[in-house]
Structure formats: C-alpha cells, structure tokens
Amino acid sequence: MTETQFTPRVFSGIQPSGGLTLGNYLGAMKRFVTMQDEGSFETIYCMVDLHAITARLVPADELRHNTRELCAGFIAAGIDPEKSILFNQSQVPEHAQLAWIFNCVARMGWMGRMTQWKDKAGKNAEAASLGLFAYPALMAADILVYHATHVPVGEDQKQHLELTRDIAAKFNHDYEVEFFPVTEPVIEGAATRVMNLQDGTKKMSKSDPSDKTRINLTDDADAIAKKIRKAKTDPDPLPEAVAGLEGRPDARNLVNIYAALADITPQAVLDQHAGALFGHFKMALADLAVDKLAPISTEMSRLMAAPAEIDRILGRGAERAREITVPILQQTYDIVGMLRS
Ligand code: TYM
Questions:
Q1: Is 226 noted as a catalytic residue in this protein?
Q2: From 203, 227, 232, 282, the catalytic residue
Q3: Does the annotation count 203 as an active-site position?
Q4: Which of 73, 144, 161, 210 could be 185's S-S partner, Cβ–Cβ 3.0 to 4.6 Å?
C-alpha cells in the first residue's frame, strides 16, 4: 500500500464544563493560538458540548452559558474565527455519526483501561453513564472526522490520543484501506501539566472544591496576584539548574508556569532568578500573570455582553466545519457499506 498524504491539519477541543483554568490556557489554548499563527497547519478548534454531558446531565441554560463563555475564552485568548474554524460540536452532527461507527470499532477492554474513565467513574462504575464509557470513541471521531494529523493537548489526554490511533489503525486494517491518518499528539512545552497551587503533586483542575488551588481565566488582577502569593512553596531559594527542582513539585510548578507565560524555557527562568527566595519570585510571577491574563478576562466579559455575536460566530464555524466533515463521513459510510440515500 502506498502512503496516503494528508493535509497538515490541527484539531483540538475543550469541554464547556464551566470555568477555564490556567491549566487549560497554558496546556491548550495558548498553544492553539501559536499553531494558528504559525501558518503551517489548518487549525480547527471545538467546544465539545456532547462530551460535557457525559459526567452529569447539566441544566440546559448552564450548558448554553458555558459553551458561549468558552467561545469567548477562545477568542479572548487569541483564536481568530477567520483564521481558524471555531465551532460547537453538537452543531456538526457528523461527530456523533462517526462516533457510532467507532463505538463498533473500539473494544470494551480498550475503553475499560482508560485512566480517566476509572477516575471519573470511581468505585460505582455501574452508575456511570454509557456516554462516559464511550467518551474516548467520540473524541476519536472529533479528530478523525477532519482527518486531523496533529492534536495539541495537555499531558492528561495522552492515553485518549493513543486510543484514537488504535481506532484509526483498526478501522484501516479491518476494511483494508488507508483512510484515517494515524494522528500525532502534540504535547510540548513547559506547561503540559500545570499543577494545583496548593499541592504540586496534583493537576490543576476546575473540579477541585477549593478555588485557591487554581487560577481561573475569569479571575481579576487582584484574585490572580493573591492566589500566586498564597501558592504553596518551600523555604529553599530557586536553584541554578532545572535538575535542582527534582523533588520540589511546588517550586517546579511555579517555574514552569513562569516559563510558559513568558515564552521562555524553565532554565531561562532559573538563569534570571537563581538564588531568589519564593517571596520575591512569586511577586515577579504575579506581575507577569496579571500582565498576560487580566486582559483575557476583560475581553471575555466584553464578548459575553453580546451573546448573539458569539452564536453567529459559532454558526459560521459549524458551516465551515461541515464542508470538511460531510464528505469524510460519506466516504466512511461507503467504506462500511451503508447505502446512500
Ligand atoms: P478538557 O476540557 O478537560 O481540557 C481541555 C484541554 O486543557 C488541557 N488541560 C491541561 N493542560 C495542562 N495542565 C492542566 N492542569 C490541564 N487541565 C486541562 C487538557 O489536556 C486539554 O488539552 N477530552 C478532552 C476534550 C476533547 C478533545 C477532543 C481534545 C474532546 N475531543 C479531541 C482533543 C481532541 C478534555 O476533556 O479536555
């Protein structure tokens, strides 16, 4: 078989589950903007509202609000809806249609091994929704219904992307085609795993009950500075080399956050701040964070004041998305043997 050439195309998604964190921004959005502006890929970014109801059925108004707020977040962070395709998953029905085919390709055993399934379903898996179990097959469909070649995500999505590759490979093998690309995860940079500000061994997450553990993209300048000043650290000064952060998860986290916000390497941060105590370093980090993040929160509020404009942008994004997904789904149906209407 000859190697099929696929258009270099980036796809990624974020759940509109309420509240965007610094983790989502540094691990995902900021890198989405870089890939958009670099110009070597077509870039497609999605609010995955179908995923957002897998853990619990969210009240309808809340889901609509969260979806619009996430769209405002994307734009405020620098996604340009002219340069990228920016849209909401449920408005492009081919995602759910391809997901059904993938539900029949993926094996129960593969899904059962997903660590996010195990974490989210907890001890009472019997009471979890079928949608939560099938979540990674929908995620594979999100990516492959565009024949996306590259997927920028944070570290926590790595296993789901491996599963996406397994689904593509099994489909191609079983139908003897080279139809779906074997997608490359893009997990790069200093902030692929931003940690909890009160416990550097845990991931920063919007679902943590304590708001002190995270920076929200909707936090104002005061709240951002306060949370950084109160972040957990240790009494030692900053080391000269990255190796000196070994065994110091809280210190490492703040250095990584600084590096990602300033677009420099963690070593460059240490070159500037080696020997500093955390009281001092946290002030510099708070200034930097306020400088980079406060304008995003201001812009989000401005955009949220015009929800009709957000809906228009999402409507247009869905139309553009479907120019890609309709033919790919049709070809998939042809390969599988579904009759054309
Ligand atoms: P979600 O909504 O949980 O998170 C969105 C993105 O933010 C990244 N992220 C982090 N990165 C670094 N540090 C953190 N503390 C942190 N917290 C979150 C996530 O890695 C992710 O990139 N299943 C996905 C959504 C999805 C998707 C897709 C992603 C659905 N379909 C197709 C890519 C391609 C999720 O729940 O992300």
A1: no
A2: 203
A3: yes
A4: 161
Mean pLDDT of 24-28: 96
CA–CA gap between residue 88 and residue 48 (Å, rounded): 6
82 and 171 assigned to the same domain: yes
Residues with CB under 6 A from ligand 1: 11-15, 23-24, 27-28, 48, 51, 139, 142-143, 151, 153-154, 156-157, 160, 191-194, 203-204
Ligand 1 atom nearest 194 alpha carbon: 13
- Cα–Cα nearest to 89, from 333, 325, 301: 325
The dihedrals phi and psi of 63, each to the nearest 5 degrees, come to -65, -45
Q: How far apart are CA 121 and CA 108, in angstroms?
A: 15
Same domain for 211 and 185? no
Residues β-bridged to residue 43: 10
Q: How many domains does the chain have?
A: 2
Residue appearing with tokens 């009494």: 235
For residue 129, the enclosing domain spans 9-191+306-336
Measured N-to-C along each axis, helices 60-77 and 30-38 cross at an angle, to the nearest 10 degrees, of 50
- To the nearest 10 degrees (0 to 180), the angle between helices 94-105 and 130-144 is 110
Q: Which two tokens stand for residue 216?
A: 């929200």
Cα-to-centroid distance, 317 and ligand 1 (Å):
20
65 Cβ contact list (under 8 Å, min separation 6): none
Both 312 and 173 in one domain: the answer is yes
Question: Which tens digits make up the pLDDT trace of 131-176?
Answer: 999 999 999 999 999 999 999 999 999 999 999 999 999 999 999 9
Distance CA 221, CA 206 (A): 19
